């Protein structure tokens, strides 16, 4: 469990009550140092009611009113212990945070362990800046898995915002809460540009030799069209007859590679170019077309598949200073 010594200055820093302590890798145990409790609106309302009732009991010297006042006050004070105990002792671990595209909500997975024999009821979890609170219970000795969503606006690494766990159990008069900071982050890919612009095709020579004159004209068959194939090789007569889009294949030393190159990518600014390259990567993967990616200072060789896709999208997400 993570327990970092604190200086006196940090202990009395008011920001700790709302933003939590420094981020750590975890797991984090919710101890007395991390759990805070104050009356909520109902609690203050009950306190005002008890004060009025106490003054009335004093004014009229009514013993029953005294008994009722002190009984309700005792029950309210006892509920603070239950509210604190409902959070104290829980352990929070970080889970998965899969990559997403800009504009999609990032998914942060957290595991909440309850090692005690107490049934934790009416718990809540909320990310800083979010208006949504997830409500859940944790059985004795069980683990609750939570998925919290954070908004994404730009590409790059998105750190997990402060997570606040709270409860008003059992009477709803006091709110106990514990803000924590786990060192977790999700990778945000660029927002894919709309489809429409085809990527350039850069021919490369195999075996390092150039085909002799007439080799490329040695026709041997057709293949299904893939994004990036030269338009001059499309079998247009077959298209006109409704036979689908096919590409003529020639025997020769030349092979065509779908090269996604920063230099030849249209776009008004950096983000527009990255969005366009992101779209081309997704289209190439969907079509099963091998492709390479070239960025300033980065060259990813030709490939295909989930690993290659993730490598290219990560390079786009982290491009720049």
TrEMBL record:
It comes from Methylococcus geothermalis. The chain crosses the membrane at residues 43-60, 66-84. PANTHER family: SLR1927 PROTEIN, SLR1927 PROTEIN-RELATED. This is DUF58 domain-containing protein. Keywords: Membrane, Transmembrane, Transmembrane helix.
């Amino acid at each position: 469990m993570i327990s970092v010594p604190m200086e006196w200055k940090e202990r009395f820093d008011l920001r700790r009550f709302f933003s939590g302590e420094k981020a750590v890798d975890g797991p984090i145990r919710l101890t007395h140092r991390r759990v805070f409790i104050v009356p909520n609106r109902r609690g203050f309302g009950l306190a005002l009611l008890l004060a009025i009732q106490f003054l009335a009991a004093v004014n009229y010297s009514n013993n029953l009113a005294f008994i009722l006042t002190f009984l309700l006050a005792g029950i309210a004070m006892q509920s603070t212990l239950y509210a604190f105990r409902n959070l104290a002792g829980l352990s929070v671990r970080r889970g998965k945070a899969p990559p997403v595209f800009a504009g999609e909500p990032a998914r942060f997975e957290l595991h909440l362990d309850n090692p005690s024999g107490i049934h934790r009821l009416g718990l809540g979890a909320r990310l800083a800046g979010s208006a949504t609170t997830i409500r859940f219970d944790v059985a004795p000795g069980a683990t609750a898995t939570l998925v919290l969503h954070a908004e994404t606006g730009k590409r790059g690494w998105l750190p997990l915002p402060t997570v606040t766990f709270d409860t008003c159990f059992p009477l709803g008069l006091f709110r106990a809460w514990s803000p924590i900071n786990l060192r977790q982050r999700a990778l945000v890919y660029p927002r894919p540009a709309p489809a429409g612009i085809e990527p350039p095709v850069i021919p490369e020579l195999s075996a390092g030799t150039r085909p002799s004159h007439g080799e490329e004209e040695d026709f041997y068959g057709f293949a299904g069209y893939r994004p990036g194939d030269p338009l001059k090789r499309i079998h247009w007569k077959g298209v006109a007859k409704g036979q689908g889009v096919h590409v003529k294949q020639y025997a020769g030393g030349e092979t065509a590679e779908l090269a996604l190159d920063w230099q030849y990518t249209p776009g008004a600014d950096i983000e527009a170019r990255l969005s366009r390259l992101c779209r081309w990567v997704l289209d190439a993967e969907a079509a099963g077309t091998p492709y390479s990616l070239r960025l300033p200072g980065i060259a990813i060789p030709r490939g295909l598949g989930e690993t290659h896709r993730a490598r290219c999208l990560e390079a786009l997400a982290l491009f720049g200073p």
